[in-house]
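Section 5: illustrative case.
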């Protein structure tokens, strides 16, 4: 990545929305601007788990301000993600449609485990290199992420539906602090987090780190009161609990180091943190400076090449887990990418931005090709449907839910009827990928490298929705089954707004 490249990360958290902007210099990211707004979408879910109009408006207003600041950024320079509140919200698409419009960039709703991976990545980038076994905790507004890792590699990741906003709303709804309320909140948190006992037992980590959110707020208060800076201890948590009980309510709580926007959610956050200390036998936790948005920025830096893209590793893991024919998957991928490059070359001379888009299209097409038979382990019959289901329901590191769904649609559509796809047939780039994949599967049907000499896929310039496959006359005679499958493919596309024609010239 070139020096001076701008990067930005947007974190749509349950309590706050954050925007971090910076530049790349000598391979390092340097922050130039940081914006944070307390939006409290986490307490804007009604009893049916729909975001209220007021909660959506607060989010849109904030994202409009972020969008103004991001004007002029390219698509590859910005990554925006949403977490637990939008994972839960039944009407999230209503919110996201307008949110993407005002922000000006796509917003990915990421899974809990993907959030955990990004948090660990962000935390470890701010720590010295080493082989210590790390436990990383992030208590957010509606979820808590726990990660075990060694050095820079996360090994065990989980997200639990317990957070400072949710617990404050449930157990401290009147902003009153009482001993009974804290006891009930801690018991409830332990009930949710109980399954973490085996996975995150005390002998599995050396140092515990707390990222952002509640841990940061608690650490700031303890540091301002004279406790060791950058650390949270059991004794410090006991002291803070006494201070909250003495204040009796969030409105009367006045502590150096505590920001106003934290007072109304500190009760829920503290009760969860105390529960974690008890369950996991933590005596001391270090404050970590990195977090989710730093993980996003690191991904932006790494996703420039396939070798450093964590998604490539996830594809390889999925292929291995479901025992796919790796050699055949790579064969199909090579042919599909060859055909897509042919299509791209028929378009006007590309710009540098077009080159980047095409590179990403090719990479994602390769992933789909490598996974197109991932459902065969379940059943050979309708394996493309099983494969789509697997991708739609996988927690694959590096992938947002929408991105996995796009891959699932390519896998679902690589054979058979096209109308079964949940897609807009006006999505030009997706259609190009889909056609290239379907043709590659046909050409590789004998599970050997196909003869592509003289085989050319083009797009008719005067007919925007038309593609043409040209091959030498003797090709059809040499490969009659492939020629037959191509004629069947022509018929399949006739039932869509797109057309495919064959010519043996």
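Designed sequence:
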């Amino acid at each position: 990545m070139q020096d001076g490249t701008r990067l930005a990360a947007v974190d749509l958290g349950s309590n706050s929305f954050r925007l971090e902007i910076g530049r790349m210099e000598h391979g390092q990211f340097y922050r130039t601007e940081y914006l944070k707004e307390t939006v409290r979408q986490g307490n804007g879910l009604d009893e049916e788990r729909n975001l209220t109009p007021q909660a959506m408006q607060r989010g849109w207003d904030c994202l409009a301000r972020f969008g103004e600041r991001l004007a002029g950024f390219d698509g590859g320079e910005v990554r925006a993600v949403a977490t637990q509140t939008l994972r839960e919200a039944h009407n999230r698409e209503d919110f996201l449609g307008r949110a993407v419009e005002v922000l000006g960039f796509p917003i990915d709703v990421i899974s809990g485990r993907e959030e955990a991976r990004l948090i660990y990545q962000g935390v470890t980038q701010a720590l010295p290199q080493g082989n210590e076994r790390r436990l990383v905790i992030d208590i957010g507004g509606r979820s808590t992420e726990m990660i075990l890792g060694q050095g820079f590699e996360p090994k065990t990741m989980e997200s639990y539906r317990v957070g400072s906003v949710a617990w404050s709303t449930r157990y401290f709804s009147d902003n009153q602090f009482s001993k009974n309320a804290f006891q009930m909140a801690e018991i409830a948190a332990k009930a949710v987090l109980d399954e973490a006992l085996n996975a995150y037992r005390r002998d599995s980590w050396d140092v515990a780190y707390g990222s952002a959110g509640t841990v940061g707020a608690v650490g700031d208060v303890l540091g301002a009161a004279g406790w060791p800076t950058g650390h949270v201890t059991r004794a410090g948590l006991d002291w803070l609990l006494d201070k909250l009980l003495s204040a009796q309510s969030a409105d009367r709580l006045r502590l150096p180091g505590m920001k106003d926007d934290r007072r109304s959610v500190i009760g829920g956050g503290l009760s969860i943190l105390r529960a974690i200390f008890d369950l996991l036998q933590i005596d001391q936790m270090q404050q970590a400076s990195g977090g989710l948005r730093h993980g996003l920025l690191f991904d932006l830096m790494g996703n420039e090449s396939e070798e450093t893209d964590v998604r490539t590793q996830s594809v390889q893991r999925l292929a291995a887990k479901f025992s796919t024919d790796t050699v055949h998957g790579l064969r199909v991928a090579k042919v599909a990418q060859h055909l897509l490059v042919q299509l791209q070359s028929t378009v006007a001379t590309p710009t540098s931005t077009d080159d980047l888009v095409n590179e990403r299209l090719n990479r994602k097409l390769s992933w789909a090709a490598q996974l197109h038979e991932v459902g065969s382990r379940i059943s050979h019959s309708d394996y493309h449907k099983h494969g789509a289901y697997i991708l739609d329901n996988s927690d694959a590191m590096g992938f947002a839910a929408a991105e996995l769904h796009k891959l699932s649609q390519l896998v679902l559509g690589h054979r058979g009827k096209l109308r079964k796809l949940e897609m807009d047939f006006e999505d030009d780039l997706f259609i190009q990928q889909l056609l290239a994949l379907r043709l590659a599967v046909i050409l590789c049907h004998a599970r050997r490298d196909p003869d592509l000499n003289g085989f050319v896929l083009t797009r008719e310039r005067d007919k925007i929705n038309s593609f043409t496959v040209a091959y030498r006359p003797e090709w059809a005679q040499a490969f009659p089954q492939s020629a037959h499958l191509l004629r069947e493919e022509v018929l399949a596309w006739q039932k869509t707004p797109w057309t495919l024609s064959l010519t043996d010239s």
